[in-house]
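Obj.: predict assembly geometry.
Materials: sequence records (below).
Method: joint structure prediction, all chains together.
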Amino acid sequence: MSTLAILLFSLTELAGSFHPLFVHLPIGILLLAALFQLLSQKEKYQSLSSAVDISLFLGMCSAIASCISGYLLSGSGDYDENLVFNHQWSGIALAIISIFAWYLNRKGRQITWITILMVLLIVLTGHLGGSITHGSDYLSRAFSTSKTEQSEEKRKPIPNVQQALAYQDVIKPILISKCYKCHGPNKQKGKLRLDMPDFILKGGKGGKAIIAGNTDESELIKRILLSKDSDDHMPPIEQPQLTKTELDLIHWWVSSGADFDKKVADLVQPEKIKPVLLSLQSEEKLEKELVSDIPEKEVEQADTKVVQELLARGVAVIPVALNSNYLSINFVALDSITDSDLQLLQSLSKQIIWLKIGDTNLDNDKLKSLLKLTSLSRLSIERTAVNDTGIAMLTSLPNLTYLNLVGTTVTVNGLMQLKSLKELRQIFLYQTSISGQEFSQLNKIFPKAVIDTGGYKLKFLESDTVELKSARVKL
Amino acid sequence: MKRDALAQKLKMEAQRAALQLHTRRQFLKEGAMGFGALALGSLLGSCGFDGSSAPNAMLDASNPLAPKPPMFPGKAKSVIYLHMAGAPSQLEMFSYKPELAKLDGQDCPQSLLEGKKFAFIRGVPKMLGPQANFKQHGKSGLWLSDNLPHLATVADEIAMLNAVTTDQFNHAPAQLLMHTGSARLGRPSVGAWVTYGMGSENKNLPGFVVLTSGGNNPDAGKSVWGSGFLPSVYQGVQCRGEGDPVLFIKDPDGMDRDLRKASIDAINKINQEQYEEYKDPEILSRIAQYEMAYKMQISVPEVMNINDEPAYIHEMYGTEPGKTSFANNVLLARKLVEKGVRFVQLFDWGWDTHGNSASGSVDIGLVNKCRNVDKPITALILDLKQRGLLDETLIVWGAEFGRTPMQENREGKDMPFKGRDHHAGAFNMWMAGGGIKGGTTYGETDEIGYDIVNGKTEAFDIQATILNQLGFDHEKFTYESQGRPFRLTDVGGKVINDIIA
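Observations (raw structure tokens):
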């Protein structure tokens, strides 16, 4: 191809890509022209009639420009032909009507039904265009509940993955959520359609999408594995990306022969894919429940005077995040806690959710005044004088998830009292008198919690302290 | 009375110094600027430039180390970053490459050499098979070599990054890139960024402490823990395991602590007046540093003293009090984190195994280096875990780059020992704790560990992940300097979501 031809080709492509921008001009201008025309029939707005001519003229020009750019864009072949056909002809009809309307207006004749027809055509063409870019259900989507669930990308667990159909149950849902938008019934970017086995096998502009058993030559696999910096990476970076699991599954399905009918059990399964397949049987874990142990309920801002007083004492008072009123409090710089400290803490009872008060002179009595901090979820009272009696009082802190009792005199009897704390997830008991036998007893009381009694030891290895002088005998 | 007189004298001195600064030119300049600034001020005032949305609003000038909230609730509260300066060989520690063993002693194929630059390899080197045995460990089946027998016992706590890469193959620029996001001098280190963002939880200790071992500081010098364009109060404070923990922190002979306090108060008063006049944040940094140094005279020797640790802890870490060793530094790191220090940076020197000496070889020297660090690092993970601190302490292990699958042939000649050249293309790092998903791996390299197959991880990605775990969006965490906002990760970086719990 000569340079000129290439230049021309890219110019047409460029002009085509402006279509989604141009189309808004005739919509706006012609609607305004119609409005002016109808209004100017009233005496009050008669002055508007002089604006009708110019607005019809501009609207007409932009309608023609939209037709041309639209035609160039349709040449890319990325769109569903039926949808394009309707949109194209209603657009052309609109352009013709607008020429007509402008011409008649020039001649001093304003025919209301022509104006109404023009408005109807604007609405129709606009809707058809919208269906092409946003999917045919873009209007109804807001009302249908079943569709929104699907778009939330929460995959349903497969009861028995080995008995599931590899394509239908495992691969297709991935394609639906991550590929159909551009390579489905409505749009076929790069002439590729992935919603039917035949289309998948046919491939697109870039060649065969998949070659059964040969992942290295399969364009689809190549594109999804490309780094995100690459222009050819799929899905495009602004779209939802494939997860590691989805990547592994597609890769496995193609390498195992890209069969459209067989069950998972009938396909070759290398060691690597087994845990991935198994993970499909359980619900996808939502990151939220792991990350955040901050109450969802909002709380009012803490009294700044109280916060300032604590800060002046050397207590670290930190909101847990920039936009949160919940507080994390740490007495790390202090070795004593005074009665006035306790009072200050009490007046922040709603806000404090994390409290570190270990290595201080905290005792049962002082702990009592902290029981008002009912929002507390993490509490560290390591190496304090708090004993079983004090521990038992913690039942009035229903939101506790983390409890650090390292180096206290707590015993199993004390911990038993906390049975009612259903949220407890982590209990640290290093340097307490609790022994291995009691440990299993505790596991029964707190089945959901990780209990760490510590005391880890490393194996003694002679090599640790010996310096190697010459290389070891050949391995 | 004596103290008041001293304060008075110092104040006079400062006033004289200030007057000397007031030259004729400065007077004229101030005069002219003064009128201009008045007009400009009223103009800008009407445009919403009222200071409330000023750049660097996060900086509390009067107390730059005050504890501050992260952007979102982060999992980690502090970081311990273990950097093996000199670059350990991933092929003898983490990267299991049986195919490379088969190629041992063969000439390196041309295709691997074309268009590549090496620090020392010239001509056609020979391939060098792995000089260690590998086994899978833990439930996750993590591959580790027999150079790391202790780490193998905590394999399921670790998230291994198999495909880290850099574009620098010399130590100093590569270390700078890893820690400051730029291979050139002048950017703040990740520890400085974190201290700027979060302050210090303990008002008596610096937010960012650096400990070095192995006999040398890292090649890039102190700039790998520098504060760059951030106020210098955020730079790392280097502490020593032997002698005074911080140099020149003791009172000189004849000066008692009260006199020290009085003189620091006087100096700060003067500095405060200077600040009122010039509004230079560096003056506030200086005030904060004087105060911090005064507090550190007591607090640092206390926290840096490992003598009081029980015997079984010493045994676990392999520490020997009174010496400078990596093991001692690791134990100190735990103590510092426990005391609320945000960022502890450890550098261990001596991993540069070119094969020019026994201690610089991958089959002798590297084994000994591994023996030095294997036990303390494992102890650190377990000790933090039993103290309930592992979840909120992010451990990062890494280096500036990796080593080649080829044997080094400096200037085209055979080396006396088995060694490998610097390799920027692919190497390993790992993270643990701090909300990282243990027992995971990310990234893959080819069959000889030369190039990356997938999961490419760059310094920016590691920095983005560190910031993310602490509760910062690396794209929004900025500091305005030279008229534009700067980021640690410049225009790159993506959080490695695959290894996050």
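Conclusions so far: Confidence is low (pLDDT under 50) at residues 34-54 of chain B.
To do: check interface contacts against the pulldown list.
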